[in-house]
Structures are given as structure tokens and as C-alpha cells.
């Protein structure tokens, strides 16, 4: 391992490091010349110790131009230390921010891919919640935001315990050979962020009835199609939870995993679902099936391929015509198709699982794509209530066991009748209500929010799927939301990160409490005001979806700040506050500002609003 130390005052830290890190090649540097550095108390002795131990000592090194000081073969360092950086004398926070910004850009040129940058700052300087007391943001060095501009994320923060470093003495107060207070100082450890995603257009093939068709994936979903989280070789927590739930359910009843590849596309319009919540799809040129082939191919899939009716000028129904295509928002129609064909065994649990797609507002638990687990059971008429209770008790037992294994916390899991809820449902539950009547909601919560989130719904099949002897009961579970609650993941976007540090925390499908590798990510707030087209209802879901697409899911919050109607003209103006923040990669202020400008341009084009 090669370690670079910058800004050494009297080289006492470097000398102490050499004593405890024998297998490490240390390169200790300072900004001053050798003559100036040797004049500091104890520096000459520390320099001799370093050289005797085989370390390199280099003088007159500018931390903002590191590439210039090392030959190409010796530029890659596994760790870079910069303890208590400062511009010198009475330099203010702005100049020190600028110093750190240039330093981090310089580090990016000499740091190994898996390397770390350690920066120790006095208490309060960093501007993160780890500082106690915490300074006001404008009066801090804003180290996380500054580092983000160079592609680094804050991965750990530890107290800088000077008293444990044998022989260490801080020096350099106002560029003098004087010590300064380091009580409460913090060591900030930065790592490289993954590179920004390049959202190039992606085509996807899927089965539509008996035909294979291709379509262009909506840009907001480009990095979420065909990720394979539920595949056999996956160690993703979403798959682990699905397997654990299936194993628990199989203890009560025979269970069959229906592994057929369900088509991503449906045709027509899902009954009762708001069009704004659907990802509508246009087939690639030359891919649209003929009307005759479409009807033939969809003969066995009529339940999820809804058709409109062609009407004449008198409003009389004529022949059916194919409607639009859309990404499946639920696996329920596939289950209904199985039920209608009687392709199931009464008393056997049928389990379907896969990703589903729904447009929704921006919120930490609102997901435009998630993995649904649908459990279907046909039971004798009159026993459906006891079967529902059996399903819920089994799910409760499994979840309690998982919580005990992950965090030793006993969760609050409850079943509540749909009629007892008002408007406090999350987006998942609200959308499920559009798909058909719900009997019960399944809620899971833990401290500090024991009220929890709705993670599942339970319903009985509509009358057309019932027989005189049998009733079909189904339970739909949001596996992604369960993974978040179980593993302590606060932001749904983390489940989809391409940073390998996420899956490393879940080896061989083991469930653990997640430790974020990106601490205190900076956020950037921008306001946008606009006039709504006269006589039109503003589609807020489309507004949120556009923000997701333009930012690459970097928008974490959208709040309505003002709703103004102009006297006399009646024109309506809206003002929203948009907050940009990444949960897994570096996001600098300049990149966020560019996203906001692009968002404003796209709003005018796609939402037909007039910016103010």
C-alpha cells in the first residue's frame, strides 16, 4: 500500500504512522522548503526517523497540483492524508473551501480506484451533522459539497484522537510554529463515487401474446429494466426476502412458484387506473403487430389486454379495436388469467413475482418501479376469512423472524380493514385501490415510526372469477418496501444503485442492517414558478415524472410553495421547490444547477407551461 501525507507541519504524524504501518510505503510531504520545515520544533528528528524507516520525504509539494510532483509510475496512492488543511494566516471559509476544491480535484488524478482520502478538520469546520456543535452552513467549509464537485463521497467520519497518536504534536496555527485546539476534531474519509449514468436510449424485447416485439424503454426506467434482482444467482435483498417469505408460506400449504416469463407490456387500458399513473409505450417502427395477429396472439391473454369499442356516429358499439400499449403496473392481471383458465390447484399457493411500473410523485417511499410478490390461493367458499388470517399470520411470523435476525427489533405488523382508512395511504396502497376492491391492508412499522408503511394488500377475486364452490384470495406484497424497512434503507433509490458497495453488504443473500457508504449527501434547492395553460388541469404526476427523467432520479423532494390566481384574468400560477440530492453518488452544485436549467426547458416543451 502506498500512502501520501500532505501538509505535514513537523512530520510527527507521518513518523507515528511509520511506526504502526510497517508494510506501508509512506510518502510524507509539506508545502514549505526543507530549510523552512526543519526549523519547526521536532521536525528534523521526525524527518530522520522517516528516512531511517524507508519512507520518502518530499518538500515544496502543492496539494492542488499533485500530478506534477510524481512520476507516472508513482502517482497511484491507496490513501491520502491531509490533516487540518488551511490557506494560512487569517484566511476565511471561502478561501479554504476553494483550497479543498482544488485539492480534491488534484486527488482524483493520483488516487487508486478503491483508494481513500482522509481529511481531518477542527470541530465545526466540516459543516456536517457529525460536528457538535454544528456551524451554520454558510459559515462552514462545506466539505461534502466541495468534495462532490470532484467526484468524491463522504463514506466515514471518525473522531480525530490526537492523544492516541504517540509523539504527535499539531502545529501551524496561523502559519506559525504554534499548536491549536484539536478537541472534537473529526477525520473525514472520502471515496470515489460511481460515474454519472449515461442515459442512452435502450430498446427492450418482450412477448406480446404470441409475438415478440421491441420498444424503447422510457428514459426514467433505462437503468431499471432487466436488472435481474429476482434471478437465481442474485444476492439482492429483494430476492432474499421473496425466498424467505416463500419458504415460510410453504410451511403452511403446498406452494408453486410460477416462473413463466410474464410480458412486460399490456395492451389497451387498465380498468379503473388513472392514465397519469401509467407508462405508455410506443412500439418500435415496424414492430406493431397486425390487427389479425394481435387478436389471435392475445386470445389467451384477454384479461390484461383490454380493448376499446369502435363506435359509430350514433354511439353504437362496433368491432373492437386495439388500444395503446403500456408497461405492466401489476401482476394481478396475469394471476387473473391463470384463474380464468382454471390453471391452478385448489389449496395450493401460487406465487408470481416480478417488477411492475407505476408513475408516481417524488418521495422516499414512492417507487416508479418495484418488485411485486403476488400470492394467490383458491379456497372453498365460506373459508376465505380463515384463509386470509392464515396467510397474514404466516407472513407476520416470517417477518418477525427476519427482523429478529437483522436488527433484533420486534416490528409492529398489523392487518387493517380497507374501510377504516382515509387518505393516509402511501402511493403503493393508493394505486392498488385503483386495480380493484381491497379487503385488507398489511402495515409494517418499527421505532421511531411504529405506524409504519403499507407493504401489502389482500383482496378476494371479483365475482367473474368466483365459482359456486371456490373463492380466490390474493395477497400483493411490495418486496422493495419490505427490503427498505427490514434493512434500514431510507431511500428506495439505493436498492437500484450500481455501486458494488451496496451488494457487498449482503453476501450470499444474507440480510443485514445497511450501512450507507455516502454520508450526509449535499442537497441543492431550486424554485420554479410558471403559468398553467388556461382551462387545463395541471398534471402533477407528469411534473414529478419529468423531474425524475431530467435529473436521472436526483430529485429527492418536490413541494408546492404557492398557488396563485391572478385577479381579473383568472390565470393560475404555481411555484414548486425542487430539491436535488443523490443517495449513492457525488452530486455537485454545478451539476444540480444544470439539471434545474434542463428541467425548466423540458417543462415548457412537454408540460406547455409558461415560465415566470
Automatic annotation (TrEMBL):
SMART domains: FDX-ACB. Its main location: mitochondrion. GO terms for biological process: rRNA base methylation; translation. Pfam families: BMT5-like, FDX-ACB. It is an enzyme of class 6 (ligase). Its EC number is 6.1.1.20. It is found in: Mitochondrion matrix. It catalyses: tRNA(Phe) + L-phenylalanine + ATP = L-phenylalanyl-tRNA(Phe) + AMP + diphosphate + H(+). Residues 519-612 form the FDX-ACB domain. Keywords: Aminoacyl-tRNA synthetase, ATP-binding, Ligase, Mitochondrion, Nucleotide-binding, Protein biosynthesis, Transit peptide. GO terms for cellular component: mitochondrial matrix. One of its GO terms (molecular function) is rRNA (uridine-N3-)-methyltransferase activity. The keyword ATP-binding applies. Belongs to the class-II aminoacyl-tRNA synthetase family. This is phenylalanine--tRNA ligase. It comes from Cettia cetti. The gene is Fdxacb1.
Amino acid at each position: 500500500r502506498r500512502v501520501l501525507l500532505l501538509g505535514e507541519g513537523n512530520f510527527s504524524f507521518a513518523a507515528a504512522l511509520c511506526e504502526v504501518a510497517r508494510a506501508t510505503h509512506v510518502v510524507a510531504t509539506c508545502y514549505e522548503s526543507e530549510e523552512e520545515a526543519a526549523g519547526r520544533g521536532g521536525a528534523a528528528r521526525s524527518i530522520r526517523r522517516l528516512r531511517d524507516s524507508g519512507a520518502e520525504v518530499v518538500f515544496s509539494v502543492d496539494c492542488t497540483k499533485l500530478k506534477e510532483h510524481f512520476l507516472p509510475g508513482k502517482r497511484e496512492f491507496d490513501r491520502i492524508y491531509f490533516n487540518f488543511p488551511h490557506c494560512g494566516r487569517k484566511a476565511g471559509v471561502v478561501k479554504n473551501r476553494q483550497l479543498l476544491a482544488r485539492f480534491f480535484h488534484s486527488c482524483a488524478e493520483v488516487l487508486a480506484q478503491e483508494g481513500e482520502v482522509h481529511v481531518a478538520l477542527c470541530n465545526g469546520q466540516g459543516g456536517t451533522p457529525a460536528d457538535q456543535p454544528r456551524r451554520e452552513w454558510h459559515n462552514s467549509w462545506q466539505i461534502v459539497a466541495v468534495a462532490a464537485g470532484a467526484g468524491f463521497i463522504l463514506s466515514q467520519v471518525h473522531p480525530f484522537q490526537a492523544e492516541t497518536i504517540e509523539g504527535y504534536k499539531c502545529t501551524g496555527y496561523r502559519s506559525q510554529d504554534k499548536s491549536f485546539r484539536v478537541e472534537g476534531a473529526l477525520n473525514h474519509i472520502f471515496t470515489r463515487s460511481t460515474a454519472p449514468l449515461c442515459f442512452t436510449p435502450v430498446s427492450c424485447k418482450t412477448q406480446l401474446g404470441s409475438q415478440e416485439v421491441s420498444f424503447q424503454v422510457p428514459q426514467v426506467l433505462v437503468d431499471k429494466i432487466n436488472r435481474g434482482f429476482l434471478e437465481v444467482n442474485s444476492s439482492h435483498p429483494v430476492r432474499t426476502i421473496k425466498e424467505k417469505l416463500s419458504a415460510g408460506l410453504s410451511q403452511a400449504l403446498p406452494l408453486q412458484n410460477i416462473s413463466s416469463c410474464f410480458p412486460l407490456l399490456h395492451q389497451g387500458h387498465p380498468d379503473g387506473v388513472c392514465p397519469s399513473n401509467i407508462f405508455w409505450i410506443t412500439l418500435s417502427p415496424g414492430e406493431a403487430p397486425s390487427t389479425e395477429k394481435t387478436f389471435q396472439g392475445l386470445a389467451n391473454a384477454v384479461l390484461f389486454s383490454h380493448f376499446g369499442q369502435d363506435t359509430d356516429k350514433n354511439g353504437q358499439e362496433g368491432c373492437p379495436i386495439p388500444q395503446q400499449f403500456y408497461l405492466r403496473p401489476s401482476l394481478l392481471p396475469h394471476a387473473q388469467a391463470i384463474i380464468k383458465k382454471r390453471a391452478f390447484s385448489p389449496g395450493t399457493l401460487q406465487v408470481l413475482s416480478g417488477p411492475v411500473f407505476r408513475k408516481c410523485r417524488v418521495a422516499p417511499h414512492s417507487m416508479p418501479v418495484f418488485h411485486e410478490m403476488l400470492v394467490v390461493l383458491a379456497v372453498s367458499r365460506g373459508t376465505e376469512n380463515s384463509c386470509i388470517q392464515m396467510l397474514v399470520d404466516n407472513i407476520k411470523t416470517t417477518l418477525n423472524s427476519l427482523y429478529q435476525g437483522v436488527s433484533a427489533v420486534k416490528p409492529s405488523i398489523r392487518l387493517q380493514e380497507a374501510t377504516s382508512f382515509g387518505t393516509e395511504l402511501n402511493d403503493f396502497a393508493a394505486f392498488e385501490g385503483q386495480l380493484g376492491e381491497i379487503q385488507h391492508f398489511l402495515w409494517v412499522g418499527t421505532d421511531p415510526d411504529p405506524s409504519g408503511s403499507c407493504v401489502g394488500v389482500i383482496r378476494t377475486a371479483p365475482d367473474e372469477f368466483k365459482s359456486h364452490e371456490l373463492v380466490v384470495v390474493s395477497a400483493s406484497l411490495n418486496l422493495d418496501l419490505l427490503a427498505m424497512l427490514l434493512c434500514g434503507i431510507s431511500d428506495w433509490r439505493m436498492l437500484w444503485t450500481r455501486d458494488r458497495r451496496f451488494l457487498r453488504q449482503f453476501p450470499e443473500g444474507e440480510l443485514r442492517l445497511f450501512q450507507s457508504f455516502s454520508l450526509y449527501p449535499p442537497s441543492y434547492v431550486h424554485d420554479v414558478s410558471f403559468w398553467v395553460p388556461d382551462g387545463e388541469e395541471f398534471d402533477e404526476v407528469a411534473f414529478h415524472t419529468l423531474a425524475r427523467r431530467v435529473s436521472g432520479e436526483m430529485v429527492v423532494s418536490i413541494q408546492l410553495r404557492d398557488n396563485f390566481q391572478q385577479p381579473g384574468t383568472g390565470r393560475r400560477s404555481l411555484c414548486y421547490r425542487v430539491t436535488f440530492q443523490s443517495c449513492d453518488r457525488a452530486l455537485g452544485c454545478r451539476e444540480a444547477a444544470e439539471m434545474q436549467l434542463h428541467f425548466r426547458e423540458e417543462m415548457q416543451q412537454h408540460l406547455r407551461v409558461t415560465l415566470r
